[in-house]
Amino acid sequence: MKVKFRDQEWEIAGRKRVREVIEEIGKIPHTVLVVRGGKLLTEDVLLNEDDEIKLVAVVSGG
Amino acid sequence: MKCRKCSRPAVINMRQHKLALCDEHYPEWFIAQTQRAIEKYHMFTSDERILVAVSGGKDSLALWDVLLQLGYQADGLYIDLGIGLEREQIADPDQAYSIASRKYVEQFAAQRPHAHFTIVDLKTEYGETLPEVARRVQRGRKKPCAVCGLIKRHVMNRVTREGGYAALATGHNLDDEVAVLFGNVLHWQTSYLARQAPVLPAAGDGLARKVKPFCRLYERETAAYALITGIAYIYDECPYSVGATSLRHKGILSQMEEQSPGMKLQFYLGFLRARQSGFFCTQTEEVDLHPCPRCGQLTSAPGLCAFCRLWER
């Protein structure tokens, strides 16, 4: 599956849950939201090999 | 995971509340939580006019949206600081941070017939952009964010008073409040701790009441609200915020939250209880406040206030 976060992109093999994918690319699940086809996904959703997901950072401010 | 209320697929799971909700019930919950905070901390009533400070980011636009949905008389204030113009002038001026942020505010208002707003353009009104002022004054060369905060506080207070608004509402969320709290505890800034609250009451005619209706809502929750309800917002960070201490603190606190869901909320609510019971002495803040001879805003400095001194050359 394809995972996008800001201007970065990852290719991850196999079916995985949202939480596993977030951890695999080194992010803290609490700090991102995951979107597939414009819809937010909870951490337990099992993703398909051909899915494309986008991670949205929730942290802002300085 | 299913929605607690209707069993449709959930779009967000709030581990700290053990609550998962769908895209229909989440916005309802979020709006109700905001109203609860407004009432609990006596922020304002439906008879009062509120000014919302909007930056084009998710929190402030979500706040403006929620206040309008709740039927409050909420107008927006956007302060154009002129950030990013220098570095992107040649490539694409529309991508400059302040121009892009302003467009999100204008777009938001254009889609809502009751959303009225004021723009204060720093360059037009005071002759310089934030980067220009920051370069010129000593405190700005070291810390442009400190000058930015000073300017925004002054302008927000001025427009609130001049517009006859009962209060100024900002989109500070729980993560913002906890990051500030954490920093103040690390340095034992007791006078700042005594002043940190969901509501800062007005001080005479000089300082407007300030309220933070999202103070109990996680940043993840405000972002989810914006995404679910289709609020377009500026996703990029202010170029000056790179490496900011508060962002580092947020990172540390988020790791702790991941291990102990609800930790941020408990830390903040525990602090508010301690503050209410007089744990933090307020003596240090009992300073003589008097009107600045130029702008009339209250200041503890002898002579001109810090904002007016910025423009002295």
Number of helices of chain A: 1
Please tell me what the overall shape of chain A is: globular
User: Could you report the average pLDDT of chain B, rounded to the nearest whole number?
Assistant: 93
How many helices of chain B? The count is 14
Give the oligomer, counting copies of the same chain as homo and different chains as hetero: heterodimer
Strand pairing plus helix content of chain B: what structural class?
Answer: alpha/beta
Strand content of chain B: 5-15%
- Please give the radius of gyration of chain A in angstroms: 11 Å
Give the termini distance of chain A in whole angstroms: 33 Å
Describe it.
The complex is a heterodimer of chains A (62) and B (313). Helices cover 11% and strands 42% of the residues of chain A. With 62 residues, chain A is mainly beta. In chain A, β4 and β5 (39-41) form a beta hairpin. The mean pLDDT of chain A is 95. With 313 residues, chain B is an alpha/beta fold. Chain B has helices at 25-40, 58-69, 85-88, 97-110, 122-126, 130-136, 138-142, 144-162, 174-186, 190-195, 219-229, 245-259, 263-276, 306-310, and strands at residues 12-14, 19-21, 49-53, 73-80, 117-121, 167-169, 199-200, 209-211, 290-291, 298-299. Chain B is globular, with a radius of gyration of 20 Å. Classes of the chains: A mainly beta (62), B alpha/beta (313). The A-B interface holds A 28-31, 33, 35, 39-45, 56-62 and B 1, 9-13, 20, 23, 57-59, 145, 175-176, 179, 219-220, 222-224, 227-228, 235, 237-238, 240-242, 244, 246-247, 250-251, 254-255, 257-258.
In short:
The complex is a heterodimer of chains A (62) and B (313). Chain A has 62 residues and is mainly β. Helix content of chain A is 11%, strand content 42%.
